[in-house]
Specification:
This protein is mostly beta strands and 74 residues long. Helices cover 14% and strands 43% of the residues.
Length: 74
C-alpha cells in the first residue's frame, strides 16, 4: 500500500470497545521501524490504526471481512 491509498484495517477498538472490527482509513505513513518491522499508519479522521497494537491491513473490504469471519489470531 502507499500513502493516500484507502485501506481496510482489522483491528481491536480502543478504550472500552476492545472487540475486533473493520475500520476504513487512508494511509498516512509507511516505514520500517528500528526493529526492522513494517509499520503502516491509517487514519479515518477520528482514530489511527497500525501502531501500538496488532492489526491486519487489506486493500479491499472483502479481504478484511474474510479475515474477520475466519477469526483473528494474533
Amino acid at each position: 500500500c502507499k500513502v493516500g491509498q484507502t485501506v481496510y484495517v482489522v483491528s481491536q477498538g480502543q478504550g472500552f470497545n476492545m472487540r475486533w472490527d473493520i475500520y476504513e482509513g487512508k494511509v498516512t505513513d509507511v516505514h520500517i521501524n528500528r526493529h526492522n518491522e513494517l509499520e503502516i499508519r491509517a487514519e479515518n479522521g477520528e482514530k489511527f490504526f497500525g501502531y501500538y497494537k496488532p492489526c491486519f491491513v487489506f486493500l479491499t473490504r472483502e479481504e478484511a471481512e474474510a479475515k474477520l469471519k475466519e477469526g483473528v489470531q494474533e
